[in-house]
Amino acid sequence: MRIGLYPGTFDPITLGHIDIIRRAATLVDKLVIGVAINRDKGPLFDLEERVAMITAECAELAAQTGIEVDVHPFENLLIDCARDVGAQMIVRGLRAVADFEYEYQMVGMNRQLDDSIETVFLMAEAQHQAIASKLVKEIARLNGDVSKFVTPRVNKALLARFG
């Protein structure tokens, strides 16, 4: 069974994330969405809220594709999380060249820690390349319309959070 791990903070999950999840699902038999517990980032949504959003957004995809999609919170090293879930590959989404520099360093370090786990990069579709959770939150906080960047369910959660 080919198991892939797509890690991120997903605060909140965006259409860019969903695009990568949809395309990663074609590469594996099981896709684990690793939800990073990163207290340093000070997430807008707590872990339970992020897990619930991701689970809801991925349910339809899992039903359509027939692959298993699990949501797995983690706070340890990414490579240890990959081992914990039995992943042979880590899926990373790229939006721009700036993302690649950071990801390149990450891959090098992860390969030193465990060279049996591959990293696969997927470029976000053109219409999603500018989407970043950080920017979505800022636009929503300032009463801007983020409906082009997130699903209706996530948009509703952002509206509820920011009033």
From TrEMBL:
Residues 5-138 form the Cytidyltransferase-like domain. Substrate binds at T9, K41, L78, R92. One of its GO terms (biological process) is coenzyme A biosynthetic process. It catalyses: (R)-4'-phosphopantetheine + ATP + H(+) = 3'-dephospho-CoA + diphosphate. Keywords: ATP-binding, Coenzyme A biosynthesis, Cytoplasm, Magnesium, Nucleotide-binding, Nucleotidyltransferase, Transferase. Signal peptide: none annotated. Its main location: cytoplasm. Pathway: Cofactor biosynthesis; coenzyme A biosynthesis; CoA from (R)-pantothenate: step 4/5. Gene3D superfamilies: HUPs. One of its GO terms (molecular function) is ATP binding. The record marks H17 as: Transition state stabilizer. CDD domains: PPAT (cd02163). This is Phosphopantetheine adenylyltransferase. It comes from Sulfitobacter aestuariivivens.
